[in-house]
Design brief:
alpha+beta; about 850 residues; elongated; 11-stranded mixed sheet
Length: about 850
């Protein structure tokens, strides 16, 4: 917690304020120093509390049950805490077990393991005891099981070979620790701005010293004016305004299912130009769904719906389908299946088999009823070596009695079949028909569908058949092909369209094969005609320079290793992109650290991924990331509004001070009055300005350029109008009232109040670049309205309340002066309203006045920029 607190002080603006506080103490102005230090402490506490709240939310989010493992030691079985497993133990693994360590498979029976967290592979992987080549990639090591993965089917015995940091997950965690995190764009902008501010303050300070010496002023008086200038030039309210803006963005994101672990990540999302996203679970539902069926007569049926939901149906050319062929196939999907689908309980079993039960429900078949009517009496479990599974059932589906349902890979099942039903009759499968069935299966696979074939053997017993005997059987009757896919989330396509409109390019990085990735990417709008896929083997042969040249045309990176994800992020950053990287697995963690903003998944994400990220998405949804990007842009826009307000006001204060000094007048206001104005009067409304709601066009603008400074040329152009207006009004009043013989204390009080009034009107100016301040939109931000009321009351107290008169060196004046000050102060509003009116008229006529900001300028045609 102490480190989090100290981190809030790591900012050039904070350093400048500390210097100002030190100088104030040295000159005996301890009250000024106290106010500055209070601001610094408040800023740090707000930031630290927000980060601490995010950490607590994250701990609650990742509260996982304590894992145990079954091991064999000295010939006896033990159940031990997963942390107590050591090399040399023999793990006993069954379906549903979380694997506690890396282990070499000794024996396996139909073992399937989900390795998405480690390799990114979306489908369960078949495991066996046969060794693989020494140079096999991690995803292809089918004789190994790895810590952090989950067994979904079968059982196995495996020898533990690595635990802790020696495991594959531990190796990636170590890589994550040694990866250097990038500074956020906001951190870089603040550092640059701080340097400019230091130089500017020193130059103006030197100017004042020089002018004062030329005029023959006492050095103490010169120094007091210089301190007043320094206090006026430093935007004391900016660190607080930035912290509040980011904290408000955090709260808004939390309502949109995003937990922010680091405040600066909010603004970074708004500047994002590329989102590198995982496929499984983020773009897709991580729930397999049958999308297509091919019946024996060659007709292809379309299946609608989403994931495991039973909504949807089976149709051909938009019309519902009911036939004996379809009914037999759906029965086979239910019977040769080990999954359970008993609502309202969560589905249990292999995702592929769950999808088959959902398909049956869409076709009007009740899985429980069919299983009860046709009970299983024998089975041959699925084996990856033969790619087959078979179950025997009793009942009366045919006049011949018992029957066997076979499920497996099309290239195996089709060769076992000799007959099929067509138009109510059983016909023989010849070579022509067999070739057409293989072609149909290849066509479905080419669309990134995972294809299963089903067959039935009438009047047959499994008896003592094993897998090898089953593979040698012939004489099955072909029932059909079923193609599955992990379907895209319904809301993702529109979210990607919003990304495109906002100038943000989505890129898929997946552990799946390139064909599967490109199919999903094309369906969602990620892949376009001029983009390609790049797999890990190709990427390994590219140099960093070649990769940087290729990344603009690649929309899908497939089968990539953790080190390659780091290279992809680095290549994008080398091209000046601001990269947001999403991920849920341990293999994603190094890239999450390397990216400008790492986004981890809350539901499926591993602890390592969450620790490596700056933002955690609690619903694992890409659309939530896009909403967070929008919030980030709102935050940055509000920060720019606060900057415009603060710096136009601060610059005007300096101009008034220097102008009065050069004209031979005393200081128009005391240093403590400037401090009061900056921290209390102006601070109250500036902080509330960053609570402005979205203007509605945030996702129609291009991303914020990576190298855009806090004070852009467009912002300086507006300041060139606002600063002289405020300075002329304030300095003019001071000169006129001084010439009229008004006592110095009263003139200073009136000028001090006029400056505050000008800044209140200026806040209204800064709420929008082009929209008039004279409308009801102010009611959309009640905090700003309340801040204006409180600021007015505070200023009344500063002028008319005795204790504050003493502290601020003010004196009361007549109320009729207040009206005059209000009229003079409003000139800043009318001048800006005139400018906005001209901009709106130019936009309507197409002349080309553009809203300020880097995004707007980047989209403006060259000819229009001149106007």
């Amino acid at each position: 917690m102490l480190r989090v607190l100290l981190r809030q002080f790591a900012s050039p603006l904070i350093y400048l304020l500390m210097v100002a506080a030190g100088i104030s103490v040295a000159l005996g102005h301890r009250s000024d120093a106290v106010v500055i230090l209070v601001v610094l402490v408040v800023n740090a506490v707000v930031g630290a509390l927000q980060e601490g709240r995010a950490e607590r939310s994250l701990r609650a989010l990742r509260a996982l049950s304590r894992h145990t493992a079954r091991v064999v030691r000295d010939g006896r079985q033990f159940v031990v805490d997963a942390r107590e497993v050591v090399p040399g133990d023999v793990l006993l693994v069954e379906a549903g077990d979380a694997i506690a360590s890396d282990a070499r498979v000794l024996e396996a029976v139909a073992l399937r393991v989900t390795e998405a967290a480690l390799t990114g592979e979306s489908e369960p992987v078949d495991k066996h005891a046969e060794p693989v080549s020494r140079d096999a990639t991690l995803a292809d090591r089918t004789d190994m099981i790895f810590a952090g993965t989950l067994a979904t089917a079968g059982r196995a015995r495996a020898l533990v070979v690595a635990t802790g940091l020696a495991t594959e997950i531990g190796r990636i965690a170590t890589l994550t620790e040694t990866t250097e995190a990038s500074k956020t764009p906001l951190e870089r902008r603040i550092a640059q701005f701080g340097r400019y501010l230091v130089v500017g303050a020193l130059l103006v300070f030197a100017l004042i010293i020089g002018v004062g010496l030329i005029r023959g002023m006492a050095f103490a008086d010169i120094l007091m004016v210089g301190i007043s200038q320094l206090v006026g030039m430093i935007p004391e309210g900016l660190p607080v305004a930035m912290t509040v803006a980011l904290a408000v963005g955090v709260q808004r994101m939390a309502r949109r299912q995003a937990v922010v672990r680091q405040l600066s990540a909010v603004e970074t999302l708004g500047a994002t130009t590329v989102i590198c996203t995982d496929k499984t679970g983020t773009l897709t539902r991580n729930e397999m769904m049958v999308a297509a069926i091919v019946l024996p007569d060659g007709s292809e049926l379309t299946v609608t719906g989403s994931g495991y939901a039973s909504d949807g149906g089976i149709s051909k050319d938009g019309l519902g389908v009911t036939s004996e062929q379809l009914r037999e196939l759906l029965d086979a999907c239910v019977l040769c299946n080990d999954a359970q689908l008993d609502a309202p309980k969560p589905p249990l079993g292999d995702p592929t088999e769950i999808a088959l039960l959902v398909l049956a429900q869409k076709g009007g078949v009740d899985p429980s009823a069919r299983r009860a009517a046709l009970p299983r009496c024998a089975e041959v479990p699925f084996d990856p070596s033969t790619k087959l599974m078979a179950t025997e059932h009793h009942g009366q589906p045919t006049p011949l009695g018992p029957f066997v349902v076979v499920k497996g890979a099309p290239e195996v099942v089709v060769e076992m079949c000799t007959t099929m039903r067509e138009n109510g009759a059983v016909i023989t499968i010849d070579e022509r028909v067999r070739r057409s069935l293989h072609a149909a299966a290849d066509s479905m696979a080419g669309r990134a569908l995972r294809v299963l074939a089903f067959a039935v053997m009438d009047n047959t017993h499994l008896g003592q058949l094993g897998q090898r005997d089953l593979a040698e059987l012939r004489g099955c009757r072909f029932l059909g092909l079923v193609g599955q896919i992990d379907p895209p989330r319904a809301e993702v396509a529109s979210a990607i369209a919003r990304c495109r409109a906002a100038g943000v390019r989505p890129v898929m990085i997946t552990g799946d094969h390139a064909v599967t990735g490109m199919t999903i990417a094309a369906a969602l709008g990620i892949a376009r005609d001029n983009t390609t896929a790049l797999d890990g083997r190709e990427l390994a042969n590219l140099s960093d320079a070649d990769l940087a040249q290729r990344v603009p045309t690649v929309s899908v990176f497939a089968r990539v290793a953790p080190e390659q994800k780091l290279r992809i992020v680095g290549a994008l950053q080398a091209r000046g992109e601001v990269v947001a990287m999403t991920g849920d697995g341990v293999n994603d963690a190094p890239a999450l650290v390397k990216a400008d903003v790492g986004v981890a998944m809350g539901k499926t994400g591993t602890d390592v991924a969450k620790e490596a990220s700056k933002i955690v998405i609690t619903d694992d949804n890409f659309a939530t990331i896009v909403s967070a990007v929008e919030e980030g842009r709102v935050v940055y826009r509000n920060i720019k509004k606060a900057i415009l307000t603060l710096f136009s006001s601060s610059a005007a204060e300096v101009v008034v001070l220097v102008g009065a000094m050069m004209l031979g007048y005393p200081a128009p206001f005391a240093a403590v009055q400037i401090l009061w104005n900056n921290l209390v009067t102006e601070g109250l409304i500036t902080v509330n300005l960053v609570l402005e709601p979205a203007e509605g066009d945030e996702m129609q603008r291009a991303p914020i350029p990576r190298d855009e400074p806090l004070l852009t040329r467009a912002l300086l152009t507006r300041m060139a109008v606002l600063v002289p207006t405020i300075a002329i009004a304030t300095l003019g009043w001071f000169v006129a009232r001084s010439a009229a013989g008004i006592p110095v204390a009263q003139v200073q009080t009136e000028t001090f109040t006029l400056l505050a009034i000008c800044e209140w009107f200026n806040v209204l100016n800064c709420r929008s670049e082009t929209k008039s301040a004279l409308d009801w939109s102010l009611l959309r931000n009640p905090w700003l309205l309340g801040g204006l009321v409180v600021a007015n009351l505070m200023q009344v107290g500063a002028v008319f309340w005795g204790p504050l008169n003493h502290v601020l060196h003010t004196v009361p004046f007549d109320l009729d002066i207040v009206i005059e000050l209000g009229l003079v102060g409003s000139t800043v509003l009318w001048v800006e309203e005139l400018r906005k009116w001209r901009v709106r008229r130019a936009l309507r006529s197409g002349v080309g006045f553009m809203p300020t900001g880097g995004a707007a300028r980047r989209r403006a045609p060259r000819a229009r920029r001149r106007s």
